[in-house]
Amino acid sequence: MPSEREKMIAGEPYRASDPELMEARLRAQEVLARYNATAPREAGTRDAILRGLFGAVGDSPTVMPRFACDYGFNIRAGSNLFVNYDCVFLDCAQIDVGDDVQIGPGVQLYTATHPLDAALRRSGIEGARPIRIGDNVWIGGGAVVLPGVTIGDDAVIGAGSVVTRDVAHGAIVVGNPARPR
User: Fold this and answer.
1) 123 phi and psi angles, rounded to 5 deg
2) What is the pLDDT of residues 93-125, one digit of tens each?
3) CB contact set of 36 (below 8 Å; sequence gap of 6+)
4) For the purposes of burial, counting CB atoms within 10 Å of the CB of 30, is it exposed (0-12), middle (13-18) or buried (19 or more)?
5) What is the CB neighbour count within 10 angstroms for residue 23?
6) Residue 46 belongs to domain with CATH number
7) Backbone angles phi, psi at 2, to 5 degrees
8) How many CA atoms are closer than 13 Å to the CA of 4, on its beta-carbon side?
9) CA separation, residue 2 to residues 6, 61, 66, 87, 157 (Å)
10) Which residues contact 117 (CB under 8 A, 6 or more apart)?
11) Choosing a second label site near 165 at 20 to 30 A (CA), which of 13, 39, 111, 140?
12) How many domains is the chain built from?
């Protein structure tokens, strides 16, 4: 029988109240508290903390405080990542970020989903779908990327956009819901 963590990672319905998942979230919160409290001049320490939190990260990452995520281990980022202030990555499923990605302040990446049926929602069942962000993507401040979205290489997401569907390679999308410009 798969664990709730295994079900979550596989994209199957799972219970976030599972003790193993609750412990993993607490661990991430402890790591994030250290990370967000570390002075910018302590770049080596910040880098080491980030590498201990994320599943994988390439060279030269910059993630400004206050950064928040659920688990951290489901985040994989390439080289030259820049994440501006006050971003939230709900990483119940994999969040894959390519190389040379710039993410503006207040951006939110949501992999978590909840059942539309109220009774099922009350039962504590949740779901998650991965987010994939290609190379050389710029996501403007305050944008929200919803579960299951893939953003192609060289794309631009306008500030404040809500991305509900995949974004093509090189596309510029804006608005709520985000549409090609």
Assistant:
1) -70, -10
2) 999 999 999 999 999 999 999 999 999 999 999
3) 65, 66, 67
4) exposed
5) 11
6) 2.160.10.10
7) -70, 150
8) 16
9) 6, 34, 34, 31, 37
10) none
11) 13
12) 1
**CA atoms of 177 and 58, how far apart (whole Å):** 31
Question: Residue 10: which H helix or E strand, with range?
Answer: helix 4-10
Q: pTM value?
A: 0.95
Q: Two tokens at 108?
A: 């939110």
Average pLDDT over the chain reads 96
64-83 pLDDT, tens per residue?
999 999 999 999 999 999 99
Identify the domain containing residue 35 by its residue range: 4-180
Q: Residue 36 has which token pair?
A: 């967000």
For 125, what's the count of Cα atoms within 13 Å in the CB-facing half-sphere? Answer: 12
pLDDT digit of tens for each residue in the chain (181 aa)?
Answer: 899 999 999 999 999 999 999 999 999 999 999 999 998 788 788 999 999 999 999 999 999 999 999 999 999 999 999 999 999 999 999 999 999 999 999 999 999 999 999 999 999 999 999 999 999 999 999 999 999 999 999 999 999 999 999 999 999 999 999 999 8
Q: Where are any strands of DSSP class E within 9-136?
A: 14-15, 56-57, 62-63, 68-69, 75-77, 82-83, 88-90, 95-97, 102-103, 108-110, 112-113, 125-128, 131-133
Catalytically active residues are 114
